Every structure is written in C-alpha cells, then in structure tokens.
Amino acid sequence: MVSENERLDHYLEVGVAIIVHTDPSVKLSPRIPSVIRGWQVGSYILVDNPRGNNGKCALAEKDVCGVRYLLNGQACAFDTPVLGMEKDAAGNFIRLKWPDAIEHVDFRKTERITVSVPCTITRNENETLTGNLLDVSLGGCCVVLDEALTPKTEIALSFVFPDGEVLDNAVATVCNSRANGDQYYHGLAFKEDETNGLVALASYISRVSERRRSDRGELAPGKQVLIIENDLDVAHKCLDELKAANQECVSAQNVVDAMYHLRVALPKALLIKLAMPELNGLEIGRLVRSVIDAEHLKIYL
After folding, report:
1. Across residues 268-277, what is the average pLDDT?
2. Of the given ranges (22-26, 94-98, 99-103, 255-259), which has the lowest mean pLDDT?
3. Judging by DSSP bridges, how do beta strands 91-97 and 44-48 pair with one another?
4. Which letter does DSSP use for residue 223 in this model?
5. What is the three-class DSSP state of 196?
6. Contacts (Cβ under 8 Å, ≥6 apart) of 2
7. What whole-number distance in Å separates Cα of residue 301 and Cα of residue 110?
8. Is the pLDDT of residue 146 over 90?
9. Which of 103-107, 123-127, 262-266 shows the lowest per-residue confidence on average (mean pLDDT)?
10. With 70 as the cut, is the pLDDT of residue 110 above it?
11. Where do the DSSP E strands lie in 41-147?
C-alpha cells in the first residue's frame, strides 16, 4: 500500500531506527543505519547524518536516497532527495525532502519465504563459513552448511536477496542442527533487537507476500496499469478513461513515485509519457526493465 493523501506523519516516529540506501536505483548501493529525529509536515524529515566507513556523510545535497524502516508492524519505505545538512550541539543531521508518499505493508513475523541464495556465516568474530539459505522469516531462517554448528552458538549472517535487498551481519543464534548426508541443516533465530537487518528482511518478505496474495486473488485487482505522467490534468484524463473501461489503474508523477509502485506489486502494464522532464520515456522504460521481475512488463509510450 502507498499512502499519498492521508497524513504521512502517521508512518513516522521520532527515534525510530532506519536504513538509508545511498542510491536506491543501484541494487548493492551502501545501506547505512540512521535515526529519525523529527520533521516538519510537508517540508522535511530530519535524520542523523548517515556516515560511511570514512566517517564522512555518504550523501550530498540533491542526492536521492532510499529510507527503509519498521514501525508498528509495518515495513515502511520512501525515496526522497537530500535538502541539506544541519549541525547543532547534539550532532550532525541531514534534512530530507518531505516524501510525496510512503510505501507501507503489513508483515507477519512467522511468515516464511522459500529462497535459495548463497550466504556467509561468521562465528568467533573471524571464522567465516559459506552455505546456502533455504528459507527465511522475521523470526529466523534455515541454512545448510558443510559442517555442523553447535546449538546456542551466536553467529553473524550475511546474504543478498534475489531482488537486491542486503542482510549484512545480522546476529542470530543456532537453535538446532541435523545431518543430511554430507551436509548439515541449521535452524537460526534472529536476535529481537536486530533492527538494522530486520528492516531489509521485512521489506523483502512484505513485497513477496503482497505479490503472492495478488497472484492468489486475495488482493483487490487494483493498480494494474501504472501511468507515469507529470501533468496532473493529463494523468487524471487517462485515469478516467481507463476506469471507464473497467480497468483499475494508478498514476505516478515522476520516476521516484513510479518505483514505489513497482516495489510493492508489479502492475500489468505501464503507460509512460515520452517527454518526461527528468528522464524521457525510453530511459524510464530501460530503468523499469532493470527492476527484478519487471523485465517482461508491457510498456506503452
């Protein structure tokens, strides 16, 4: 679900931990922990300065960043540009432009998603093992390795989801281990306070669950055609004509808004204005094709 017209501050909270993607258009762009410190409705959101490994701010003015976080049982996300930097006695902050919309979807901690991706496990701080992740939920996961781990051992787990979300050094505890031939299957439980890792995890699980529910017909068949048009009058005319033809649809005024809709549930088709101000329609189409699962979407210019 994408909140646009309702009060967006209902999906914000001072002190909530967030993950800042320095470039949401790039799959493996750096993800840096930060915290929401305040906001002015309709103007900006103030967050802690996301510093890279060199201690410097990883963002510059006008850079578009992605913000991901968990709040009240919802995985929330929005992309927005940096307005500027601020300094005060408490530390350094950056001001992010007030978003046009906040993507938010409910998640269930016990919902388990089947995957098959390589993973890395670190134990005793410097011993690294490689294996395969078989399934995952917000509570834990199943990992297969070539050697057995002792139950109650605390480890750090890292892997990249198929859609590019990254779980980096999430702390977990080994619950059980069983042999199957030459391999060992392990049940891991994530630590309850593993906020940074669970933000990316909840975001991925929520999107997969939403798509599955849509495929099963459990979701209303809305938002099937995505219209990318910066002129509101033209967009509304297109919406009216499609709705008159019993076709559910949604519109986006820019590329950032369009990516919100693509992340939650893929549309059936895209209708893109050719002469868009940021990128032309052809460039937007190429960008859409680079999104996981969107390679074969029908695109009309």
Report:
1. 79
2. 255-259
3. antiparallel
4. -
5. helix
6. 101, 102, 103, 104, 260, 261, 264
7. 42
8. yes
9. 262-266
10. no
11. 44-48, 64-71, 74-88, 91-97, 102-106, 113-123, 127-136, 140-145
Q: Which helix (H) or strand (E) holds 205?
A: helix 195-215
CA distances from 32 to 29, 41, 78, 95, 108 (A): 10, 24, 15, 16, 25
Q: What residues form DSSP beta bridges with 114? A: 135
Q: List residues bridging with 189 in a β-sheet.
A: 140, 173
| Residues counted in the chain | 301
Under 8 Å between Cβ of 29 and 65? no
DSSP 149: P
Q: Which of 191, 189, 272, 188 is nearest to 226 (CA)?
A: 272
Task: Specify the pLDDT at position 107.
Answer: 57
Angle at 193 between CA 124 and CA 196, to 5 degrees: 85
**Token pair of 163 as six digits:** 């859609």
Contacts of 62 (CB under 8 A, 6+ apart): 81, 82
Q: Give me the residue label for tokens 């068949």.
A: 221
Cα distance between residue 164 and residue 292, in whole Å: 8
The whole-angstrom separation of Cα 206 and Cα 108 is 8
Q: What phi, psi does 28 have (nearest 5°)?
A: -105, 35
Q: Which two tokens stand for residue 266?
A: 């893929």
150 vs 127: CA distance, rounded Å? 14
